[in-house]
Write a structure and sequence with these properties.
By secondary structure, the chain is α/β, with parallel strands linked by helices. It contains eleven helices and 15 strands. It folds into two domains: 208 residues, DHBP synthase (Alpha-Beta Complex), CATH 3.90.870; 90 residues, Threonylcarbamoyl-AMP synthase, C-terminal domain (Rossmann fold, 3-Layer(aba) Sandwich), CATH 3.40.50. The chain has an eleven-stranded mixed beta sheet with strand order 1-8-2-3-7-4-6-5-9-10-11, with helices on both faces. A four-stranded parallel beta sheet has the order 12-15-13-14. The structure holds threonylcarbamoyladenylate (TXA) and magnesium ion. It catalyses: L-threonine + hydrogencarbonate + ATP = L-threonylcarbamoyladenylate + diphosphate + H2O.
Length: 336
């Protein structure tokens, strides 16, 4: 199959919607990362998404909608859920809600009695979903285990020839996957960190929000609530080593041939021009936007053997950034 390139214009959006209706798989842009779309009510189409990604069948998919009104047939939307949707949608928050009886395919939920729902902040994608007239599944459009794609080129790299089309709307803005909050637990619980922080959620809900992702809340033999979080993730083939900016001078002294560095622009300026480098911009938002692209960039460079990447302060969006980088590195940190 030849993977078609579609752009953000009405003719191409129509075509993308028609492909979804026909049961094909279409990659779509969001503000976080590119997703892999298919009609969530068509089991064969959903199965094709698992096959294209090489995704384990017990890892449920997000149902992605163009309008909150598309949800009522599938999930129970509580008052709390409504509050979060009104504040953060369209945007980087995925909400786990109870499903209505027999309303959502087992393939989408992985057999759970809950479903993850999200409305992304991208006009072209929401127009495509509205035209298709059905919610679409929306896992990140990477091969399972690889860093999520933040450009259409990344999607091509992983899935060319395996999917019908890619709707290209340029690079994504946030660069890290959405926050996942579980509203079916006794207390609202964050299952994956993202741009919508614990603090922001607490303010809107007016009650305690548990961070279910912190190390101590999960014993070694325990299964995480978000099934996807148990798999190795976001990882390039080459080793990734995290460094604290306070150790940058030591790192600079110990760099060897084949070492590449991902850091803020101002730190890179101190390196010899011969060191392969990738800019994380000037702040946390820039670092989040550019993290996955940098990991993919160095993975393709023959002359690079190891990737050093800068850690961020562990608050708000920094938690999400450090979480993804931590998984990419398998916990390896630079020390002298
Ligand atoms: O930003 C995003 O959320 C992107 C864009 C494309 O929308 N999508 C994305 O999907 O990251 P995916 O499938 O790669 O990650 C969804 C996460 C997985 O960790 C999955 O296990 C979890 O959400 N999840 C899905 N349904 C769930 C459920 N019913 N209960 C608990 N966790 C669930
Ligand atoms: Mg993913």
């Amino acid at each position: 199959m030849k993977t078609k390139d579609l752009q953000n214009n009405s003719t191409d959006i129509e075509e993308a919607a028609a492909l979804i209706q026909a049961g094909e798989v279409v990659a779509f842009p969001t503000e976080t990362v590119y997703g892999l779309g298919a009609d969530a009510t068509n089991d064969e189409a959903v199965q094709a998404v698992f096959t294209a990604k090489g995704r384990p069948a017990d890892n449920p998919l997000i149902m992605t909608v163009g309008d909150a009104s598309q949800l009522s047939a599938y999930v129970e939307v509580s008052h709390q859920a409504r509050q979060l949707m009104n504040t953060f949608w369209p945007g980087s928050l995925t909400i786990i809600l109870p499903i209505k009886e027999n309303a959502v395919s087992m393939l989408v939920t992985g057999g759970l009695q809950t479903a993850a729902v999200r409305m992304p902040d991208n006009q072209a994608t929401r127009a495509m979903i509205r035209k298709a007239g059905t919610p679409i599944v929306g896992p990140s459009a990477n091969l399972s285990g690889k860093p999520s794609p933040t450009t259409a080129a990344h999607v091509h790299h992983d899935l060319d020839g395996k999917i019908a089309a890619i709707l290209d709307d340029g690079p994504t803005q946030v660069g890290l996957e959405s926050t996942v909050i579980d509203l079916t637990a006794a207390e609202p619980t964050i299952l994956r960190t993202g741009a919508v922080s614990q603090k922001m959620l607490t303010v809107v809900l007016g009650k305690k929000v548990i961070d279910g992702t912190s190390q101590k809340s999960l014993a070694a033999n325990e299964t995480p609530k978000a099934p996807g979080m148990k798999y190795r993730h976001y990882a390039p083939d080459k080793p990734v080593i995290v460094f604290d900016p306070l150790d940058f001078n030591d790192l600079k002294e110990s760099l060897e041939d084949g070492d590449a560095v991902m850091a803020f622009e101002e730190l890179l300026a101190e390196l010899p021009k011969t060191v392969p480098s990738w800019s994380l911009g000037a702040d946390l938002a820039g670092a989040s936007e550019n993290l996955f692209a940098g990991l993919r960039y160095f993975d393709e460079k023959d002359e690079v053997n190891k990737i050093y990447a800068q850690a961020m302060p562990d608050i708000d969006l920094g938690k999400a950034y450090n979480n993804r980088l931590g998984k990419a590195s398998g916990g390896q940190r630079f020390t002298l």
